[in-house]
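Retro notes, structure queue

What went well: the backlog is down to a handful. What didn't: a couple of records were mislabeled last round, so from now on we paste the full input next to the output in the thread. Example, using Recombinase family protein from Heyndrickxia oleronia:
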Amino acid sequence: MLLNYNDDKTIIDYSEYPYLVYGRVSTEKDEQVSSIENQIDICRDWIEKNNYEWNEESIVLDNGISGTVLLDRAAMQLVLEKSRKREIKMVLFKSIHRLARDMKDALEIKEILLAHGVRLVTIEEGYDSLYEGKNDMKFEMFSMFAAQYPKTLSVSISGALAAKVRRGEHIGPIPFGYAIKDKKLMINEETAPTIRQIFRWYLHDGFGFKTITRLLNEEMIKGNVCKPRKKDKWQVTSVQRIIQNPTYAGIFVYNRYTTIKINGRKKQIQNPREKWLVYENHHPAIISKHEWESANSKEVTNKKTKISAWNEFRGLLKCSECGSNMVIVQSYRKKKDGTRTEWKYLKCSAYRRGGEHGCINHTPIRYEEFRNFVLKKILLKGRKVKVNFENNVHQQKQKEITSLKKQKTTVENMNNELIDLYLKDKLITKQEFQLKRKEYENEIKSLTDRIFLLNQEEEVKIDIESIQEAFKQLKKHDEDLHHAFSTLIDDIVVYPDGKLDFNYKFEL
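Corresponding output:
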């Protein structure tokens, strides 16, 4: 079907020449909010100038996803899937920067599109596969520039940040104990005494992280120390980071971390120490360099480091009151003859770190007794398992997919019945038939796309074989059963009175 404008320009109907307009923004920063609108406007202008019918439903978007990470871009995966099914004839991009910023990904996308007869257009570069033919050099050059852009930008930003550091300026979050004046760190005399107190307790009094945390929370109530910036109570991890942070000795470490791409995804790793840029006397020190080095010397850290008891339920036990993990605490009792009896029991990690300021104390549950009880309970449950083993997340998604498939089948049946209404019963006109058929076909495509996108999302899958293997492993009582417990248990909620709530990763 062809439509005509008043100026007699022939407009190609979208249903006869389906296309997609792809848009993407890397972040959700304010300056990029209008970027999607800008991309769509530019693509719409091209569509209309080239006599194609504009269709709002042709737009597919990836929001807040980097162009260097192909696997996380669900909309791009939809573009490729529809290309493979030959459901589209053209894909439009504002620029190759929107298509991809990794040259390998850009070339792969292009090959998939062209192999399935899909026309590829990038407006800013003036690239159009319909006219370029097999000339790949132009596309490869623009792809190379697009790939180089984030690297060049990263180098420029790194250089600018390094220059700021050399000038004594601060970059990054403001550490507790400091304030900013003229872009430089200055000691905050209101909070700095708390930092000095932490190091005194650690170095001169010999207290560990846990004891210091408890003392901080007690002294905070009395008004003798300041509360942490982001939380109402001090945590062990906060104290540990302060002790290990060279910033408090006037030292700034730059280029400690970098981001790399592994299997299509980004990951932050620590650079080798020789790549670190260490600036001493960068800003006023709250403690001396000697104090910081002493606090982080092997002699001190080894003395304060205790080996925690091995916990086969690590990450699986949750406190009912605060949601923190339950951990194992070791204790012992010395007898008159010199021997000692040791035992392990469960305790809320928040209570262990901060005492009554963190949570409440639970009734002691001995680890061995708890382990034996859990083993018996799970093995008993295992005998009753009859249906598929699927976690809740996967089940929810499958229910949604099943519902969409039913809707799709219903619409397909209605579409088939429409043909009978027109051809056999003659109850509707040809025009009514064409309009309704187009409506049904669009709805079918929309449902198909939603099913595809749901299948593309990451999900935690636990198959039947792995769960059956986990049940077998539980019978080997003497082995480390952490993997088996993790496979079968979502979490176990532990109440102060010793009551337990089990949440499994399978259903009966």
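Agreed that this is the format going forward. Reviewer comment attached to the example: The chain has four domains: 2-147, 178-304, 307-391+460-508, 402-447.
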